[in-house]
Amino acid sequence: MDQTLSATDPFAPLAGDPDEALTDIFGFPSFRPGQREVIDAVVDGEDTIVVMPTGSGKSLCYMLPACVTPGLVIAVSPLIALMKDQTDALEEFGIPATFINSSLPWPEQRRRLDAIRLGAYKLVLVAPERFRNDAFMRAISGLPIGIFAIDEAHCISAWGHDFRPDYLNLGAVRKTLGEPTTLALTATATTEVQKDMALQLDLEAPKVVVSGFERPNLFFEVYSARRRAEKFARLEAAVNQVEEGSILVYCATRKQVNRVSDKLREGGHHPAIYHAGLSDQKRDEIQDAFMAGDAPLLVATNAFGMGVDKSDVRLIVHFNIPGSVEAYYQEAGRAGRDSEDAHCLLLYNRNDLRIHEFFIENSFPDPSVVKGVWSQLQRHGTGTHHLDAEMLADHLNRGGRSRDKIHPWAVESALRLLQRGGHIEFGVRSSMPWIAVQDLARERDLRVDWEDLKTRRQIEERHLDQATRYATGSSCRQDYLVRYFSESLGSKDGCGHCDMCCGVPDYGGPSQRQEKIICRDEPAILLKKLLSGVARCRGRWGAHAVAGMLRGSKAKKILQGRLDQLSTYGLLSNLRQRDLVRLLDVLGRLRLTEQNTHGCISLSDRGKKLMTSSDPLPPDVEKYLLRHVSSVPSPSTTSSSDNGKKEKYFKRSTPAAKTGTDDVNDTYLRTLRLHREGKDFREIAEKRGLTTSSVLRHLMVLAHNGYELDLEKHADGKLLPELRDIAEDWEPGDPLKELKESLTTPCNYSELKLNLAIMLSER
Ligand code: ADP
Ligand code: MG
């Protein structure tokens, strides 16, 4: 573009690069997972499909590119009610933005269209039907459209759960706009829906970024209950575990909501309830109370939750299975938004499927029901009649031959189909129901899309089936959920935070979820110590005795058996009895040991070979071991007695007002392990699916907590002297921005954090 032109170009970029825009315009310290990748692709002009959960920050993926690329960004969203808030937020960031929708009076629309044409805005937010509006199309024609962003893009696919016909037009709109860089965003799209999105928008090999579905702080559990009493018992046990924060219990029906809340009340709890049957005012009140923390235990139907973003929900129980994995993920995903541990429990009972089957059957009625309703109406002839679904259902059931009663709900669905075909109108006037029959079409001439009806029913059935599979499956829950949204993710070797990978949480006792065992030895060394211990016991002792011997126990049984005389006595004195028993159990599952009928353990052939081999561990052994063990040499400040003193599951160890000096938890230790394997922070970020910024923060916190790190080789040494000078007392959690501004050595945030980590590790 001509230089002089671009200097006055109303659509010129507002910031130099994404990093600058992030901090200077939006004021965020770092990108969230996935954001950077999407933004880079969009800025490079690549068509991109983004699947990230609600609340993960999808909007930034088009708002930020709007700031750093030339041209106008057109963003499409079906949620007219939110448009004003969104553009207000943009204006607050200093980004000229506006929206146009039917809520605006025409003169105001006119004014905005003129302003768009003059280049007053970088971003325009519209609903999909806006592209059918000539005035709007005229206003944007000829303008340089930089990015075409489509929010809630799953609405374009009939396979999604929220199909909107207006979205189908967007493929053609994209062509009309000259095929600008296209960004399709959604929180919920299976791989099938993703493909459909690309097809409908005619995107050729778009980049697909699926991110944020792994929620490592959420513990997923499914409890199969045979009777309702078992569900109540488990529900209460789970509720009783929560000491702070909020709890949400989802039920499939209003009746269940009342029943569950009564039961909880009997147990001495004070639940609030929420469902669509309550008045608007009541619902608003309850929602406000929940958000304010005044109703920390809420029993609700799925009517609750849209737009609810309470960060400290610690437990979400589904008392009944939801109708789809999407719905489950969306609802359960409201837990632990603050990244602290939270628990998602699904109480499964086969009978609950009937609720959904009933819903499906009546929402997508059999053609015979639709035809039956039509023939009833024909008897009344054309014109308006005081009838409603209930009366029609009554008639049908009285005269019907079928033994299955037709539910008024199914009749209502049939009426809607007939209305869509233009055969009837219906409604309620002055509390009198009416149906206006427009014609007397023969059954076979009905304008009802039977194929579509069938397909949509099948889609719902499939969604239910997939949810059932989640509930009844026997593999990693997190993996199932993540794979559901993208084949390319998941299939990790166990997530370490679901009942399938870690076992059911112990609701009664003090020890909760199976934490990884923190141990000073590298996995290979640990394994050898364990195997040697087993070997020395010569197949005469069970796991408890072997564990006691390795721990250096002075129990009578150990001393009497002279196990304290063995060379391996006390070899693993830094581990607890139950950790050692668990590890010995792991050896058994790896077929490294065998157990005789008396429960005595000895080495298998494989175990013997491994014990004497100097080769690296076979991958399956190492992987499995690492599921149970986090191998971290103790830092100087941490004594071995700290083993197992990790924060308890369900209990928050950090105060609500977070400082940056977090406790070193599992996620930090995983970073540490990769660091010790020699990976640099970028590689660690990639491997762990984190941002480099998070990894650098981990390293700072680790250094601050006394873990030895080897970072000097990654830095060029320019920044360090000045940091030592001016940031002597700096600690993780102290503001970075001020520090960065007071430095005379130029640097970016990554360099700064890296050097801070080095400085902290010198202390
Ligand atoms: P989504 O559309 O994916 O549901 P939003 O785009 O509405 O999520 O973002 C949710 C919240 O997260 C917003 O308040 C937004 O300002 C915030 N947010 C987005 N990106 C970041 C970031 N990198 N750092 C901090 N907050 C962010
Ligand atoms: Mg959004």
Question: Which oligomerization state do the chains in this entry correspond to?
Answer: single chain
> In which order are the strands of the major sheet placed?
3-4-2-5-6-1-7
Number of H- or I-type helical stretches: 33
Largest β-sheet summary: 7 strands, parallel
Distance between the termini: 53 Å
- Average per-residue pLDDT, rounded, comes to 86
How is the topology of this model organized?
Blueprint: H1 3-8, H2 18-26, H3 35-43, E1 48-51, H4 60-68, E2 72-76, H5 80-92, E3 97-100, H6 106-117, E4 123-126, H7 134-140, E5 145-150, H8 165-168, H9 170-176, E6 181-186, H10 191-201, E7 207-210, E8 218-224, H11 228-241, E9 246-250, H12 254-266, E10 272-274, H13 280-292, E11 297-300, E12 313-318, H14 325-332, E13 342-348, H15 353-363, H16 367-380, E14 383-385, H17 389-399, H18 408-420, E15 424-429, E16 432-437, H19 450-472, H20 477-485, H21 499-502, E17 517-519, H22 523-536, H23 543-551, H24 556-560, H25 577-589, E18 593-595, E19 601-603, H26 605-612, H27 619-628, E20 629-631, H28 666-676, H29 681-688, H30 692-704, H31 720-726, H32 736-742, H33 749-762
Helix pairs in contact: 2-4, 3-4, 6-7, 15-19, 16-17, 16-18, 17-18, 22-26, 23-25, 28-30, 29-30, 30-33
Bound molecules: adenosine-5'-diphosphate (ADP) and magnesium ion (MG).
